[in-house]
Amino acid sequence: MVVSSLSIPIPNSRIPVKPINTPFFNTIAPFTSSSSSSLTRLLHATNTSLLNLPSSSSSRNRVLAYRGTELGHKSGEEPAMTIKPAVRIAERKLVVKDRTILTNVPENVIATSGAAAGAAEGVFLGAAFDQDHCSHSVSLGTLRDVQFLACFRFKLWWMAQKMGDKGRDIPLETQFLLLETKEGSHLEADDARNDNKIVYTVFLPLIEGKFKACLQGNAADELELCLESGDSDTVGSTFTHSVYINCGTDPFATIEDAIKAVKLHLGTLRLRHEKKLPRIVDCFGWCTWDAFYQEVTQEGVEAGLESLKAGGTPPKFVIIDDGWQSVGSDKMEDEKEEQGLLRLTGIKENDKFKKKEDPSMGIKNIVNIAKEKHGLKYVYVWHAITGYWGGVRPEVEEMKGYGSAIQYPKLSKGVLANEPGWKTDAIALNFPNNGYIACMSHNLESLYCSKQTGIVRASDDFYPRDPVSHTIHIAVVAYNSVFLGEIMLPDWDMFHSLHPAAEYHGSARAISGGPVYVSDAPGKHNFELLRKLVLPDGSILRPRLPGRPTKDCLFSDPSRDGVSLLKIWNINKHSGVLGVYNCQGAAWNSVERKNTHHQTKTEAITGYVRGRDVHFISNVASDSNWDGHVAIYSHRVGEVIVLPYNVAMPVSLKVLEHEVYTVTPIKTLAPGFSFAPFGLINMFNGGGAIEGLNYEVKAGAELSDVGNGYQAEENNVGVERAENLSSEAVAVVSIEAKGCGRFGAYSSTKPRKCKVGSEVVDFEYYSASGLVTLNLLEMPREDEKVHKIEIEL
């Protein structure tokens, strides 16, 4: 059976129910007083399908093209449509913006306009088959010499990335496919002038009626569409909306627009920005798993909370992972028989979490201790949706009242091929509360039925004891976030702060845009590292979007090709952040079906960083006519670099090395006066500390407030004044910053003075680089929330 784990408002179990034949997810959720009633409702649920989706039959009347002609027209008749759609089938070719993507498209492939889903440039694909059946596959055409990024299920619960340039490279169970086509060679230099020559095409397999779609390649370089119902009695032969295709010149906008169209078509999901995120995303947390595994106790939980708090990095949420429930194995008739999966034997917590003085309090006791003694805001518990890994033991007295049963579904062919030894079943339930993390839900049935879930685990687990896993983990979470991040906020999982790869993992979590939490054992912490992530009040400096690979990294393979670095971008209110990682040397091995090393090179790899690597950097510039120049602060080296537009800076890293850059648009206030704030430069995402930014230019006693842009430039008055003011010109930068620590900025001239609040403070200025720093000695007052910094130039 397939389980999933959540963090949900249930204090005590992974729940037995009659499962449907769809693998779902693990969850982590907060403990609340309503847990018992929620659990009872969950246990009584039976065989409830979430797939209330448009049926294939109801969609047939929207078919525009079939076997190359419009439905309703005889062969040879001209269709009524006169405007060429951006994506279309013509002469047995799939054409995208007049570029051929697929050739030899079979005649039974059906194309349907995406206009009904609000996407004039998109198209749905399906196919017609001669006979009804529970599974079908059809070639969509031949794919050659087109670079792609595929996200595919390499395990039942998890996706990973694969890159290539021909159909045979596309793996089984591909659930997301992004293509890049260029004019000329794929080896063109990456230059902004060539951006308009690149077209991105995204393929999104969907759920149509009771059938789920996925993509795969074959030895003939054909891109195949696979359709399965998972039930031999559920059959069909005509499919019109099985894959959605969209195209554009901006890969991230193209993907976002495609998911929007899918949302309008299916009506079963909401986008990430439409969902309420649990407040844990802005707090530092701790998970018990790698600290204790299944031996977790109430005393251990308390020890871990106390240990982190004492070091000045207090967690504000905790996840009590596997080990708190009442479980047991099936009775074995033969003592030599191998013990099977443990199953839930009761809905209450086990004895380790019962207070000796008052056992009836149960897990509520540690919840009270965590919140009242250690200042936590949220307590989550790990929970498998079927009760436990092996489900429940239906014959146990405490389970008999819930009508529990075990049912074995039919798994998809692609999953069985990728993971042939897999033998579990699944259950899918939709929780109405956003306060949980969907931990094992990389299947379309979950993703495209997500109206509530705000956070999704981005990858397989963090494995502290597996040295081959660390580079793979960073690459996988980044590329999976390209797809997952449109629907939910990706969670890049826990890590250890005291570990050979701690900085590598920790810096990535800081720029991920998701929650930040560790699984350290009590007393085993690197507080110097943690203070780069966590403020003294337990909050974090979280960027605004899911972290994703930069545009020039989308189709390179930073785990396998031996030459590429992985660059991950994100954005703050007034700056960008860019992480660069060497992830080479290890990857998922589809033959051995495990992560393996494939090269042992130790020399550094050189890549290049540009300001425009931060995709939306122009959106945070204070000038609408910003010239593209940025100031960059290097976290590891501590250097300031001024990069003009489209100028590249080299960076060289060995395997498991990284660098994090704060990237800020330079504001030119007047000739000789340029400025760019970096934020708290001792933290990985220091730019996330800046909540407000305002620039002013003063002429003698007259003050011209230019707000978020140098408005005086537009009428030439301000420029003329500034040129004539010489030493009397004064520029004032006002900044609102949260947190405490060393605040840094780039300034083309030495500041005249710096103030924090009403107090003039000392500062340092490094004329060679333009770095100016001052110290914010303590957190802002509770009633103010931010420090008000004023820098006069």
From TrEMBL:
Superkingdom of origin: Eukaryota
Q: Which reaction does it catalyse?
A: alpha-D-galactosyl-(1->3)-1D-myo-inositol + sucrose = raffinose + myo-inositol
Q: Does the keyword Transferase apply?
A: yes
What InterPro entries has UniProt attached to this entry?
Aldolase_TIM, GH, Glycosyl_hydrolases_36
Q: Which UniProt keywords apply?
A: Carbohydrate metabolism, Glycosyltransferase, Transferase
GO MF, one annotated term? galactinol-sucrose galactosyltransferase activity
Question: Sorted alphabetically, which Pfam families does this protein's record hold?
Answer: Raffinose_syn (PF05691)
EC number, UniProt record: 2.4.1.82
Family to which this protein belongs: Belongs to the glycosyl hydrolases 36 family.
**What is the name listed in the Swiss-Prot or TrEMBL entry for this protein?**
galactinol--sucrose galactosyltransferase
User: Which species expresses this protein natively?
Assistant: Salvia divinorum (Maria pastora)
